[in-house]
Amino acid sequence: MKDTTEVSRGTVEMVKPVEAANWTGLELIPFETIAERFLDLDEDGKQETLIVAFGRPFVVEGKGWACPYRLTAMGHDRVSLSGGADSVQAIQLAMDTVHNELGVMARHHKITFRGTSDFGFGRAATPASEDGKCPVMS
Length: 138
Description:
By secondary structure, the protein is mostly beta strands. Helix content is 14%, strand content 39%.
């Protein structure tokens, strides 16, 4: 098993996002890694590491906030973007999109995180209170 404890910090790259996902109109976007997760990928019996990295959200003038994310595995490096009304929503939507993309990938490859098929990128939500009171402030 590979040592996956190294975390990239403080580096701002300018990268070209996947054209189909580039709603920003920018040819190159900043990618400063703020969080990474290392997943195990079984490609025809060969163990690989699938790296999911999230970049620092940034403002796209007149279009809102963008959160770049990167999937790296099997010699491929793919950068895409999710957009939101603010930086928090952009991050949430990036995580939700990554969850969906990994679900599609998992149809073709065995992907695990710490031995489970739960990648941990599902939509963040707080369950509604059944008594109608605020679950945080009540």
